[in-house]
Design goal:
By secondary structure, this protein is an alpha/beta fold. The chain folds into 2 domains: 175 residues, Medium-chain alcohol dehydrogenases, catalytic domain (Quinone Oxidoreductase, Chain A, domain 1); 124 residues, Rossmann fold (3-Layer(aba) Sandwich), CATH 3.40.50. It is built from 10 helices and 15 strands. The strands form 3 sheets. Strands 3, 4, 5, 6, 7, 14 and 15 form a 7-stranded mixed β-sheet that branches. Strands 10-9-8-11-12-13 form a 6-stranded parallel β-sheet, sandwiched between helices. The longest helix has 21 residues. The radius of gyration is 20 Å and the shape is globular. The protein starts with a strand and ends with a strand. This is Quinone oxidoreductase. Keywords: NADP, Oxidoreductase. InterPro entries: ADH-like_C, ADH-like_N, ER, GroES-like_sf, NAD(P)-bd_dom_sf, QOR-like. GO terms for molecular function: mRNA 3'-UTR AU-rich region binding; NADPH binding; quinone reductase (NADPH) activity. Pfam families: ADH_N, ADH_zinc_N.
């Protein structure tokens, strides 16, 4: 028996309940992990409120965590009891213990703490594929990233700056804009009192951006397209303000033969080799000091309800972690 957050019906944060659950022995190709830290991400709220369909009902939310391998099933050769690991993608991380496919867990190197690993797997690996795979960012690249003071934003800003790009971000307050500028952004636009489309045009002398990374969705979609130069790439990778409304592909032509993609980390790390490559690139850039993982707030796992309230109320900065033990 162990404890976990359980959801019996979709809705607001209060639908999560702290309950006893049975924990199985790992089957073939699986490991059981005694967790020490769990990452909190916006995607968790999408499953909780029904935006994304739950895998089953009731269910335990959460997509990433870190801890110690407690038991291994048959056929597992690259992990053993006592290994420190982290994972992303497996459902049900809001629990004291989890059983998951060994193929989804990656060894955590020395020098990276469990809380740091749990905080950065989804957000950091998202930054990795956005910058290195969806669009190859380099010294000649100008990018715009919305929600620059959020979890992905703070990592991506540092990493993009390390790659030599010109990095523009948006945030909802002067305080968050200052935080963005302290984390790699050359320019930070306060969208609560500035027109970000106009400011991007001013900052770039009318040249606009090579790529826009938009995890906000409905509220920023049209403006994001207007921030792209001819043949630019619109990367819609989230929807914190709601889903992007249906649109005609003709608008992409009208605004300069733009490209549009709706990627996900899980498609970019579908194979074991892709997962390890993405994770190791993240570990390397963090260990080098080029990217620092700032945990803005922690909550006991049993207080995940409040963590979700704060996340959706835009009261958080950086990474949010649920701690265990």
């Amino acid at each position: 028996m162990t404890k976990a957050m359980r959801i019996h019906e979709t809705g607001g944060p209060d639908v999560m309940k702290w309950e006893n659950v049975e924990i199985a022995d790992p089957g073939e190709g699986e490991v059981r992990i005694r967790q020490t830290a769990v990452g909190v991400n916006f995607i968790d709220t999408y499953f909780r409120d029904g935006t994304y369909p739950a895998p089953s009902m009731p269910f335990t939310p959460g997509k990433e965590g870190a801890g110690i391998v407690e038991a291994v099933g048959k056929g597992v050769s690259d992990l053993k009891e006592g290994d420190r690991v982290a994972y992303v993608g497996a459902n049900g991380s809001y629990a004291e213990k989890v059983v998951l496919p060994a193929a989804s867990a990656v060894p955590v190197p020395d020098g990276i703490a469990d809380e740091t690993a749990a905080a950065m797997m989804l957000k950091g690996m998202t930054a990795e594929y956005l910058l290195n795979r969806t669009f190859k960012v380099g010294p000649d690249t100008t990018i715009l990233f919305h929600a620059a003071a959020g979890g992905v934003g703070l990592i991506l800003g540092q990493w993009a700056s390390h790659l030599g790009a010109t990095v523009i971000g948006t945030a909802g307050s002067d305080e968050k804009c200052e935080l963005a500028k302290a984390n790699g952004y050359d320019h930070a636009i306060n969208y609560s009192r500035e027109d970000f489309v106009q400011r991007v045009a001013e900052i770039t002398d009318g040249k606009k951006c090579d790529v826009v990374y938009d995890g906000v969705g409905k509220d920023t979609f049209e403006g994001s397209l207007d921030c792209l130069k001819r043949l630019g790439l619109m990367v819609s990778f989230g929807q914190s303000s709601g889903s992007v409304p249906p649109f005609s592909p003709a608008i992409l032509n009208q605004k300069g033969s733009l490209f549009f993609t709706r990627p996900s980390l899980f498609n970019y790390t579908a194979t074991r080799a892709e997962l390890l490559d993405c994770a190791n690139n993240l570990f390397d850039v963090v260990k080098s000091g080029a990217v620092k993982i700032e945990i803005g707030q922690t909550y006991p796992l049993s207080e995940a309800v409040q963590a979700h309230r704060d996340l959706q109320g835009r009261k958080t900065t950086g990474q949010t972690v649920l701690t265990i033990g």
